[in-house]
């Protein structure tokens, strides 16, 4: 089974953003040694417990510290930015590290104040499919006269191009990926399972219709928690669920809560109910149990690759998680 990683770059309780970023570099280097396919960085704004507000900046650090691992964004929220500028950023990374750069894009509006700040002074909105089409144009150095920016070249001009991926959970995103002949990345985090299967089937069908000689490709992503001992898995799960519970509130945590913090926390009945609802958003178990569940996910959803999110507390715990999954998957 092909395994990859999506990292939020968590800032643990008692740590700094500098330490979080340095740890992510260490984790990517380890992932490369362990044989993971890709290492992607998420984009999150106004979330104080993660250091991934500018994934492309983190990506360049990871590219410089690894040699073969595919490094990507999971993903750049394209509606906030100029497709031209995004193309130039990713072409520079691709020029420096050919055939290793992945551009995963999404279109989440984020918080209202974040959206306003990122789109300040814009006089018009360009729809997401048009921006994807623009990126394809820039990466291919396309000079077709019917493109709205046919006279514009994204520099530097290079012989390779970043690999593009579309992130989403809807038929609209699946259709966009299929029309462009791009891989589709879909999160499995407690949604209706039949709906997920329907979206993936729709992507496969549309892809075959538009590109009958090419192969569609689906990556499915999910939070995972594992450790050698059940007690440690439970402790990590408690800290994870506390983090997940609080990030949607105005008084969100300033850091990812420690295991000790989580063990001392008392919960209201409403919070316990919410935690129970969130159980389906994460896969928890022994290394073999997690790998078995991920392989079942591949079969159930006709996926080609699994992208795990090792969003657990502690640098050592994250390293152990990657080692255990790699060993169980070998």
TrEMBL record:
Positions of the Luciferase-like domain: 1-295
Molecular-function annotations in GO: oxidoreductase activity, acting on paired donors, with incorporation or reduction of molecular oxygen
InterPro entries attached to this UniProt entry: Bact_Lucif_Oxidored, CmoO-like, Luciferase-like_dom, Luciferase-like_sf
A Gene Ontology term for the protein's cellular component: cytosol
Protein family per UniProt: To bacterial alkanal monooxygenase alpha and beta chains.
PANTHER family associated with the record: LUCIFERASE-LIKE MONOOXYGENASE
Protein name listed in UniProt: Alkane 1-monooxygenase
Organism of this sequence: Staphylococcus edaphicus
